[in-house]
Amino acid sequence: MPIDGIRLIDVHLHAAGKVGLKLDWDRWVAVRTGTPPHELYDDEGTIVPARFHAFLEREGVDVALLMAEYSPRVTGIQAAEAMVPLSEHDPGRVRFIANVNPLYHFPVGEEVERQLAMGAVALKIHPVHGSFPPNAAELYPAYGVCQERGVPVVFHCGTSNFPGSVNRFGDPVLVEDVAKDFPRLRIVLAHGGRGWWYDAAAFMALMREPVYIDIAGLPPRKLPEYYRSFDFERLAAKFVFGSDWPGSPGIRSNAEAVRDLGLSGETLERVFHRNAEEVYGLRP
């Protein structure tokens, strides 16, 4: 069921297969959820599409975006191909986001095209886990493809406590270079500058019309504190809802915590679905 009658889109979930996951499972699932994630898996460590569909239905998620990731140094490899069965089982509810790593893929432009052809609705760049800066020249062909095709790019923007992470590459100042060089590119700052850069991420979102903040991985009740230097209602109008599942208490519980922040109904609709519909092209 929707949250107070408002459509809910979750733009940030990790449907990781246990086989490709480098991290210890308990480290990956840092927070216990209402539905234990292992109940959604088969004996071989793969998410069962029907179980996942039922889980999203219970959590009130109308559309879920799953993250592919190629970060062999830190989290392992969750290939785009692994996301396809979940998307094909319920294409109206489940889509996925491509990922490229310039230390793993070459040429990156062709790899982006390949994953988009598989059904990806956006591109994720994970500098912190991939050990490269987001403004690396090797990535510019990927950004060119996305700007030309109207595909948004999601940047991990903030710290990670996983072993091997290079947190200096989570600085949104490095993404600002990309925003400057690709002014028509829609950009989403995942985790909103978590750790040291909340102000920089917020300033970018307010300064640049095509820049948004994905609040995945941030405790909703602390958002007004993290962004206390800004008009919170105005900034929240640039938020998109993400849960970072399974590393969160729950999708519905996080959404309800956002609802309880006292934002206007119009802003809540933007956070819960309208911004995602606009940025990712997810029309009802």
Task: Walk me through the topology.
Blueprint: E1 9-13, H1 25-28, H2 49-59, E2 63-67, E3 69-71, E4 76-78, H3 80-89, E5 94-99, H4 108-117, E6 123-125, H5 127-130, H6 140-149, E7 153-158, H7 172-181, E8 187-194, H8 198-207, E9 211-214, H9 223-226, H10 232-236, E10 239-240, H11 251-259, H12 265-280
Parallel strand pairs: 1-2, 2-5, 5-6, 6-7, 7-8, 8-9, 9-10
Antiparallel strand pairs: 3-4
Helix pairs in contact: 2-3, 4-6
Characterization of this structure:
The chain is of the alpha/beta class and 284 residues long. It has a single domain (9-280), classed as TIM Barrel, CATH 3.20.20.140. Helices cover 36% and strands 16% of the residues. An eight-stranded parallel β-sheet has the order 1-2-5-6-7-8-9-10, sandwiched between helices. Strands 3-4 form a two-stranded antiparallel sheet. Strand 3 (69-71) and strand 4 form a beta hairpin. Helix 4 (108-117) packs parallel to helix 6 (140-149). The longest helix has 16 residues, at 265-280. It is globular and about 45 Å long.
